[in-house]
Amino acid sequence: MTISPRFDQYEDAWDTRCLVELRVGNRIETVRFFHCYKRGVDRVFVDHPMFLEKVWGKTGGKIYGPVTGTDYEDNELRFSLLCLAALEAPRILHLNNREYYCGPYGDNILFIANDWHTGPLPCYLKGMYQSHGIYKNAKVAFCIHNIAYQGRFAASHFEMLNLPDKFKPSFDFTDGYNKPVKGRKINWMKAGIIESDRVVTVSPYYAQELVSGEERGVELDNILRTTSITGVVNGMDINEWNPLTDKYITANYDATTVMDVKPMNKEALQTEVGLPIDRNIPVIAFIGRLEEQKGSDILAAAIPEFIDENVQVIVLGTGKKKLECQLTELEKMFPDKVRAHLKFNVPLAHRIMAGADLLAVPSRFEPCGLIQLQGMRYGVPPICTSTGGLVDTVIEGITGFHMGPFNVDCEVVDEDNVQTVIKTVKRVLKLHGTPAFTEMIQNCMVQDLSWKGPAKKWEQLLLSLGAAGGEPGIDGEEIAPLSKENVASP
């Protein structure tokens, strides 16, 4: 079962007509649950105006705030409501339109709590359920997707959570940064880490980075060294991202036809974005959020220094206005070389992957990253920094190019990092069109980038916590399939 807010009127999710009252802050709120059964998984959506009316067509707002970089003032209430609803759903929902099981999941549950938004869940589990004999054998695995976002709030806001005082030390936190107020706070992610039975993150190298020091661990490194953390690299959806069947691209291809077909996709892409048509000129793409984590500001600073080379650059993404303006100016300065599409456009993202030669991934930090997996799937070697999941998934000289680690300070553009991008791009462009580059494209495309391997490791991890009554899993051993009935993921 997956449990998430109902942010839209999902057409295949039906009203269960199951309502539950939950105490959030100083008031009682009623939520109802919508449900669909898809790909063998119950998808449950928590319906409440704090979710749907903030995002779907009413305010034009985003999931976490009205505009990028600004939070809704009631985010604490919104996500504590999600945690409480997630604890109720497996107990009370009678999901009777599934082929394998009918009725509620029951008490024997393993919750996978994702990121700071679910930090209070293990506390609610212990303080409101297990203390009353409910969910006695339930466990929680807490998964960190990006430690930069921790849910730091004023210390006085602990009272809004309606938790026993014994949990206060797990939330207490001294904020060493000045945004917006330096000093004592509560930290939802810290509580999730401490109170859960297992802490997981999305790649092995990122797990190492998080315990390596305060800078990478964003002031939670000491806590993680105490609890320990396991890294399991993400897989990707190889059905949605498949150049052989992709409905968005001009010509389909696989590893055996890529060298003949990709030039046609490049010409179609150049035509679409308005760049000079030349199948022999290398095209470097950047697809992602325009924010400091992704290093789009570093790339923008480097472009004028390498754009005189035989190269074109295409950027697709939205984000902070100052970064959007920076890229718009570059397009004006180099109209025959640079295109910046500042919008969310899934079909164009697919066509860029099919037509580009190289993928720029200059992230200051990257827990795992999916974009480099999608690029390699389409035969686009990444030019990436050496951080997080990029280290685990891209092999220098074999499936891509590494630039080394970058300065993680998002307040500045480190000139050394800019020069590294320039030097690496120039190095890579010399290799383009050679037999070695062709071999690299082949290496990218023949990899298994699916969820098959990562799912097996997750299965071992969950079995080690007692899911499905299993025994601890050991790498290399044959493990029985994990039961679907007793895993809930908010």
UniProtKB/TrEMBL annotation:
Residues 277-409 form the Glycosyl transferase family domain. GO terms for biological process: starch biosynthetic process. Gene3D superfamilies: Glycogen Phosphorylase B. Residues 3-225 form the Starch synthase catalytic domain. InterPro entries: Glyco_trans_1 (IPR001296), GS/SS (IPR011835), Starch_synth_cat_dom (IPR013534). The keyword rRNA processing does not apply. It catalyses: an NDP-alpha-D-glucose + [(1->4)-alpha-D-glucosyl](n) = [(1->4)-alpha-D-glucosyl](n+1) + a ribonucleoside 5'-diphosphate + H(+). Its EC number is 2.4.1.-. GO terms for molecular function: alpha-1,4-glucan glucosyltransferase (UDP-glucose donor) activity; IgE binding. Pathway: Glycan biosynthesis; starch biosynthesis. It is found in: Plastid, Chloroplast; Plastid, Amyloplast. It comes from the Eukaryota. One of its GO terms (cellular component) is chloroplast. Keywords: Amyloplast, Chloroplast, Glycosyltransferase, Plastid, Starch biosynthesis, Transferase, Transit peptide. This is Starch synthase, chloroplastic/amyloplastic. It comes from Canna indica.
